[in-house]
Design a protein that fits this description.
By secondary structure, the protein is of the alpha/beta class. The chain contains seven helices and nine strands; from the N terminus they run βαβββαββαβαβααβα. Helix 5 packs antiparallel against helix 6.
């Protein structure tokens, strides 16, 4: 018996160091293009932050369950982003969105974004959101007030390493001014979905 072919859409990947503005840009695009795109909810072993909802912001799962799913090849990509804390994209999440007839939009860390681009090639547009500087990024992270001083140091060190990956992406989107970055992101999305 022949298997029915599911809808095959495109992937729009926004990656950046923590604090660069990728989440704000992705939320802007979802607000404007919600009929065409849907957000890929990542799985994570970290604890939910205040106000975060399981199945909306992330799929919050235990480390044991995460490792079980890795063993069963359920992830399109995953990594241990911070020591002992895993993040990943479930294959079922991409398929869920494609079956709804939409394209997938990602708000994902740099390594994960590049991994998805390697897998999905021409069906994926990988956009690196570049902050004005590492100093501005550090100010934004401190301003959030969501992390301990040790966690902030770890995030800033990781951001410094991630900035070196920018040229491996299809596009570098500078986020010096949020309104400009959002309108440039709209143009990138529209052009890619038309291609």
């Amino acid at each position: 018996m022949a298997k029915t072919k599911t809808h095959h859409g495109k992937l729009v990947i926004f990656s950046a160091p923590s604090g660069a503005g990728k989440t704000t840009i992705v939320k802007h695009l979802l607000g404007k293009y919600g009929e065409k795109i849907a957000f890929s909810i990542s799985a994570s072993t970290r604890q939910p932050r205040s106000g975060e909802v399981n199945g909306v912001d992330y799929y919050f799962i235990s480390k044991e369950e995460f490792l079980h799913r890795i063993a069963h090849k359920e992830f399109a990509e995953f990594e241990e982003v911070y020591s002992g804390t895993f993040y990943g994209t479930l294959r079922s999440e991409i398929e869920r969105i494609w079956e709804a007839g939409k394209h997938v939009i990602f708000d994902i860390d740099v390594e994960g974004g590049l991994h998805l681009k390697r897998i999905y090639k021409k069906d994926a547009l990988a956009i690196f959101v570049q902050p004005p500087s590492l100093e501005v990024l550090a100010e934004r992270l401190y301003g959030r007030g969501t992390d301990s001083p040790e966690k902030l140091k770890e995030r800033i060190a990781k951001a410094d390493r991630e900035l070196a990956y920018a040229n491996k992406f299809d596009v570098i989107l500078k986020n010096d001014d949020l309104d400009t970055a959002c309108s440039e992101a709209e143009q990138l999305l529209e052009n890619f979905l038309k291609s």
